[in-house]
Write a structure and sequence with these properties.
By secondary structure, the protein is an all-alpha fold. It contains 18 helices and no strands. The longest helix is centred in the middle third of the chain and has 29 residues.
């Protein structure tokens, strides 16, 4: 064999890969995460949080001030004159039957509206994610399309329907309205979360003899805890803080808390001491619920965002 032939048949060294020669390019998400962890960004977020909480702090301080001080000076004046703080406003609030009587009505509206939306939304979300039935995808698209329907569009038709069904000015009517408008978002959120459950896990449960009902309550519901918690917080906050639906459909003689506080503004000169304290009582309960379940809320919001 000649030298030239040997050179041709000898194994040639493999060229180095381009990616081995050049350093790996940092992704956009990695760069954003690296910059977001900096001290300047954290300081900015602290400032934003402080500005966001300022109205809440102002409302809290105003709820402990005398009506004359509220009408004449700003709430920040209390730092120079702590003697303005008093509990008389809350004594007047707790003695006001109109406002305090609205608290049970608010609970009777909020709790059933939240529970029904969570239960029905979870059942429907599981059906759309893992059960085959004719027209499933089209029905789901129709449900998603209902997300863009504004509440104001349904006020007059629903009012006419409630009048015929004797549901006008009843707690049942308000609850049904909130459930109807809360279900599209509930089904959309829970369906996307349930669809990410590994199919092998469900198939293993079916092989072991689990029925669809048992599979739903023993496997799907525990795994869907974060999304269900997030949905519960969303629905609770929306119903608790609602005023429009309550003004239209609730009993004027037994309104929820938001309407009861709003009614006090019609007599602003005489009931100014009830407005700040009543508004803070109306706001503090949703805040407690949110901070108590904030971890589940964040996990549920991120659920379904990425595969």
């Amino acid at each position: 064999m000649t030298t030239a032939a040997a050179a041709e048949t000898a194994p040639k060294p493999e060229p180095q890969k381009a990616e081995a020669e050049a350093p790996a390019k940092e992704s956009l998400a990695a760069r954003i995460g690296r910059y977001a962890g900096g001290g300047a960004v954290r300081a900015f977020l602290v400032i934003v949080a402080f500005l966001w909480l300022t109205p809440t702090v102002g409302l809290l301080i105003s709820s402990f001030r005398d009506p004359a001080d509220i009408a004449t000076t700003g709430w920040w004046k209390v730092f120079g004159d702590p003697g303005q703080l008093t509990t008389d406003t809350y004594d007047a609030l707790f003695g006001n039957e109109d406002v305090m009587g609205a608290l049970p009505t608010t609970i009777w509206i909020t709790v059933p509206s939240t529970l029904l939306v969570v239960v029905i939304g979870a059942l429907a979300g599981y059906a759309f994610a893992w059960m085959d039935f004719p027209g499933r995808d089209w029905v789901f698209l129709a449900v998603v399309g209902l997300l863009v329907v504004p509440v104001q569009v349904a006020l007059i038709p629903i009012a006419s329907l409630y009048r015929d069904l004797n549901l006008f000015h009843t707690i049942t009517g308000v609850v049904l309205f909130h459930v109807a408008f809360g279900l599209p978002f509930a089904i959309f959120l829970l369906r996307n979360f349930f669809a990410e459950i590994p199919r092998e896990l469900l198939e293993a449960a079916r092989i072991d003899g689990a029925s669809e009902v048992r599979l739903f309550f023993r496997v799907v519901m525990p795994l869907g805890g974060p999304a269900i918690a997030a949905l519960s917080i969303f629905q609770f906050l929306w119903v608790w803080n609602d005023m429009l639906v309550a003004l239209v459909f609730a009993d004027p003689g037994k309104p929820p808390l938001t309407v009861a506080v709003q009614q006090q503004t019609r007599q602003f000169d005489s009931n100014i001491e009830l407005i700040a304290s009543g508004a803070f009582i109306s706001m503090i309960i949703p805040l407690v619920v949110f901070f108590a379940f904030q971890r589940q809320f964040v996990s549920g919001v991120m659920a379904g965002a990425v595969k």
